[in-house]
Give the backbone structure.
Amino acid sequence: MKIWIGTALCAGLLAGCSSSEDRILFDGQFYRTNVRKVERQLDVFTVTVKPVSKSLLGARQAGSHAAIEYCINQFGASDIIWAAGPDVPQEQLSIEKDVMTLQGQCPNAR
């Protein structure tokens, strides 16, 4: 019985791992994204995307995708009110050390 439980546990852990074929490419590139809530507000978030130097278009798309995924997972809707969004002119984007930072809010907070 212990062997079966151990085998099932290992299979579950491996199922959570993603291979390089499962990653989503934006403008032909893979980007690392990180979404964090701002302070204690679950509906307000920041997204960081890197490396922007691969493609600014791809970085914008990756950031938008990560934000939409966050709002869907947290509130069940893809609507976003951007404070610093991916669709602003390039000179208005917050890019430092090859990392782009976006900020938004999921308006459909429960």
Notes: DSSP finds two helices and five strands in the chain. The chain has a mean pLDDT of 84. The longest helix spans residues 56-75.
